[in-house]
Amino acid sequence: MNRQLHLNLFVFGRGHHEGAWRHPLAPSTSLTDVEHYQALAAMAEKGLLDSLFLADVLAVGDTQGHSPITPLEPITLLAALSATTRHIGLIGTASTTYMEPFNLARQFAALDHLSRGRIGWNIVTSWVNGVEANFGHDHQPPHAERYARAFEFMEVVKGLWDTWADDAVLDDRSAGQYLQPERIAALNHRGAHFQVRGPLNIPASPQRHPVLFQAGSSADGQRFAAQYAEAVFTAQPDLPTAQAFYRSLKQQVHEVGRQPHELLVLPGLSAVVAESDQQAGQLLEELNALTALETGLARLSARFGGHDFSRLPLDLPLSVDDLPNPDGVQAAQSRARVVVELVRSQRPTLRQLLTRLAGARGHYTLAGTPEQIADAMQTWFQNGAADGFNLMPPIMPAMLATFIDEVIPLLQQRGLFRTAYQQHTLRQRYGLARPASRFFG
Amino acid sequence: MNRQLHLNLFVFGRGHHEGAWRHPLAPSTSLTDVEHYQALAAMAEKGLLDSLFLADVLAVGDTQGHSPITPLEPITLLAALSATTRHIGLIGTASTTYMEPFNLARQFAALDHLSRGRIGWNIVTSWVNGVEANFGHDHQPPHAERYARAFEFMEVVKGLWDTWADDAVLDDRSAGQYLQPERIAALNHRGAHFQVRGPLNIPASPQRHPVLFQAGSSADGQRFAAQYAEAVFTAQPDLPTAQAFYRSLKQQVHEVGRQPHELLVLPGLSAVVAESDQQAGQLLEELNALTALETGLARLSARFGGHDFSRLPLDLPLSVDDLPNPDGVQAAQSRARVVVELVRSQRPTLRQLLTRLAGARGHYTLAGTPEQIADAMQTWFQNGAADGFNLMPPIMPAMLATFIDEVIPLLQQRGLFRTAYQQHTLRQRYGLARPASRFFG
Fold first, then answer.
1. Is residue A155 helix, strand or coil?
2. Lowest-confidence region among A65-74, B9-18, B59-68
3. What residues does A91 pair with on adjacent strands?
4. What values do phi and psi take at A254, rounded to 5?
5. Is the predicted pLDDT of residue A86 greater than 80, yes or no?
6. Mean of the per-residue pLDDT values for chain A?
7. A204 min Cα distance to partner chain B (Å)
8. CB contact set of A346 (below 8 Å; sequence gap of 6+)
9. Closest approach of chain B CAs to the CA of A134, in angstroms?
10. d(CA B10, CA B182)
């Protein structure tokens, strides 16, 4: 079969545009109401998407006063959605910095059982300033320290998922033998950050390991992704940048001895789809008019670890010197770097920059007809920039519905997207092998 | 309205009897298959039960080789069950010793949103030896230290649940105001075990606090329950013991300034129900014949913190001197004490003791006709021993079905049990007030 696109829905409030929640096309359902998410999941599954994804931040933050994010908790929400869906992959964010590896390994294994093998874990080290104070720390651990812990964390959780052989549960009623103790191994991990004896207290799940996602694109982040990730979400503002990232990451995957196809690159794509160019542009203007300067400033500040941008003039072209050096940013280095590159290449005013980021926080944004969107996706896909996309509809569910009704059929006609669900697990859909147990094969 | 029974289903493997999983009446569904639990939840809801409950142990333990427990994880399983049920309360166990308070508070608030106010939390300090090694500890924290941490943990999580006023989410689209920051408070907790700034990153849930359950009946456990619990699960082998416990606990609740009705006492009840006494006895014998000596010995050993009982003669009457002093047990003091009392009052042989405990691990067990079961429940309920029961069917779902079909109608005829669901939240069903926020009232 030809190589086909992998499409993921990034579930986020009432849409990815900062002004979405106020737009007449946005639903009025409360964002704490599970029905909002059940409806999105059902729609995404009707559209045959590979998966849906929930981001996460472990603090309220300063940006929500004028623009909501998803206020529920990913692990519990995915568990609930596993009961109302059958095919779609379910990817949740969880932090290596603020969770115990035993608890995380266990909850993701449980999710994989509940969903019959549809779970992915988006691995984050939690970069938002202020989160640390909810977990007993006076200062945020530096970028490098968070990654050092993350590397060891992965060894622990992958080890825990390997502690049960597939035949460990014998369930032999006549012999009275439920488990085979010799088919369950201790882990006995003793490292710099963790001591975990194991075994895990849950049998091996359908995928054994959830599909591993990663979204940090700093140097540490890419090194981590090359080692562990099976798919990356990434913010790439244009084709050349995306191609360079794609090439570099696949090369790093190769260098650690893995096959390039074992890591899928999924850039974000936020598309305003309409019947005409003009209508799409009009919708985008309506959305931009609904944003608040202070939300944009708070989000920009968060990316740079709390730097204050509020004294810069709003309507003069920015220069790179107005921004902190991203190498020194201890929060989200790669997200800071996206902004620096934008300023370097386009010299926007602060107001223009905030509007640009309001669209989808620096991800690739498009406004146009279904053909134009499909063309752009095809170009990225066939020219070494993407293995698929992380779809970020500006307004949800309305613009997801348009995408599914108008763009998906074009992709299918071009042979670029499936016309029915085939595989059972998310791993199978991504063409990834089920990991063998390090203890039992 | 007259006082009525509160009935909870304690979901546990294929039933509470150690031999249940091998019995012909037990289902063959895998215990990692969510359908097993969905079927039990649907049946319990059809029977109008108040709630269902999942216990938890954070390690595999030595007892599962010949008798399974529930291998899934409570928080994720309850989230999944929230999507396939509408009325029944959903109670999950989670540990104050091995979870971060911020993560626990958040996941339970999320569950309360997902279920629209049907969540309870069974608070445990994790007594099973060996669990500590999965969380970086070389030795299990002593009983008193676990409880010291638990008391502070409760102050943190209750505080976190109070950080959002009910009107904090304004969602005013025309004004562009999503949150009201002045209606969200920091917690700023700095104690001996925890430093947590807050606020929680999720709006106040329908019940604000989940209903708080507790099951440890040691002196520390009772002091903790009197302070925090709104319902207790407890193992009481007979009526006089249950009456003494009930009286003592309600007195302690009174002494800390709470109303006795603000804490419900729910003893475990494991009933083999059949058309005749004789048939019930026959079923119980079949179950006892399916138990394994080594499972019983491992479970007994775990209660006493790892003490070895395997060298005691099997068929000579035990004396209290054969058992360690429960005051020195750092694991589950109250569960050890139940065994000591059994040995003191009945002088069983070791084999008889293990059989007795195989029924439901020391809980009140009965075998008889529907009338006999209903009579016993009425006696306990009307004579100061119980506000309801934690139902522990020996085989599930078969013996739950019999209980619902045969015993529930008798209780309804006597006016002791509801004939339809009325209230929306679990708190309302228990007659408990929704807690006010300590910050906003």
1. helix
2. B59-68
3. A53, A120
4. -60, -40
5. yes
6. 94
7. 10
8. none
9. 4
10. 42
Asked if A232 contacts A249 with a C-beta cutoff of 8 angstroms, the reply is: yes
Half-sphere exposure of residue B324, counting CA atoms within 13 Å on the CB side? 20
Rounded CA-CA distance A104/A109 in Å is: 8
**Which residues in chain A have their CB less than 8 angstroms from residue B196's CB?**
133-136
pLDDT at res. A1: 59
Residue B331 pLDDT > 70: no
Q: Whose CA is closest to B418, among B7, B129, B23?
A: B7
In this predicted model, which residue has the larger pLDDT, A427 or A359? A427
> How many angstroms separate the CA atoms of A312 and A258, rounded?
46
Six-digit token string for B328: 């020195």
- Of the listed ranges A199-208, B23-32, B310-319, the one predicted with least confidence: B310-319
| pLDDT single digits (tens) A30-75 | 999 999 999 999 999 999 999 999 999 898 877 778 888 889 999 9
Total residue count of chain A as it appears in this document: 441
Task: Supply the mean pLDDT for chain B.
Answer: 94
Q: What pLDDT, on the 0 to 100 scale, is given for residue A137?
A: 83
Task: Tell me how crowded residue B441 is: count the other CB atoms within 10 A of its CB.
Answer: 8
DSSP H/E element including A376: helix A370-382
Per-residue pLDDT averaged across B209-216, rounded?
94
Homologous superfamily of A6-280+363-429: Luciferase-like domain (3.20.20.30)
d(CA A155, CA A148): 11
A143 is in an annotated binding site: yes
- Chain B residues within an 8 Å CB radius of A75: 75-76, 79, 107
Q: From A65, which residue of chain B is nearest by alpha-carbon distance?
A: B179
For the stretch A122-146, pLDDT in tens is 999 987 778 999 998 888 888 889 9
ipTM field: 0.95
Whether A178 has a binding-site annotation, put simply, is: no
- What's the half-sphere exposure (Cβ side, CA atoms, 13 Å) at B55? 21
pLDDT over threshold 80, residue B102: yes
**Nearest neighbour of A22 by CB, restricted to B84, B169, B173:** B173
DSSP category for residue A191: -
What whole-number distance in Å separates Cα of residue B210 and Cα of residue B154? 12
CA distance B261 to B96: 25
Does A137 carry a binding-site annotation?
A: no
**Fold classification of B6-275+364-429 (topology level):** TIM Barrel (3.20.20)
Sorted by where each begins, the domain ranges of chain B are 6-275+364-429
Give the pLDDT of residue B66. 83
When pLDDT is averaged across residues A321-343 and rounded to a whole number, the result is 82
Closest Cα in chain B, distance from residue A168 (Å): 10
Question: A199: closest CA among A224, A215, A179?
Answer: A179
Angle at Cα A74 formed by Cα A17 and Cα A355, nearest 5°?
Answer: 15
3-state secondary structure chain B: CCCCCEEEEEECCCCCCCCHHHCCCCCCCCCCCHHHHHHHHHHHHHCCCCEEEECCCCCCCCCCCCCCCCCCCHHHHHHHHHCCCCCCEEEEEEECCCCCHHHHHHHHHHHHHHCCCCEEEEEECCCCCCHHHHHCCCCCCCHHHHHHHHHHHHHHHHHHHCCECCCCEEEECCCCEEECHHHECCCCEECCCCEECCCCCCCCCCCCCCEEEECCCCHHHHHHHHHHCCEEEECCCCHHHHHHHHHHHHHHHHHCCCCHHHCEEEEEEEEEECCCHHHHHHHHHHHHHCCCHHHHHHHHHHHCCCCCCCCCCCCCECCHHHCCCHHHCCCCHHHHHHHHHHHHHHCCEHHHHHHHHHHHCCCEEEEECHHHHHHHHHHHHHCCCCCEEEECCCCCCHHHHHHHHHHHHHHHHCCCCCCCCCCCCHHHHCCCCCCCCCCCC
Q: What is the pLDDT at residue A303? A: 83
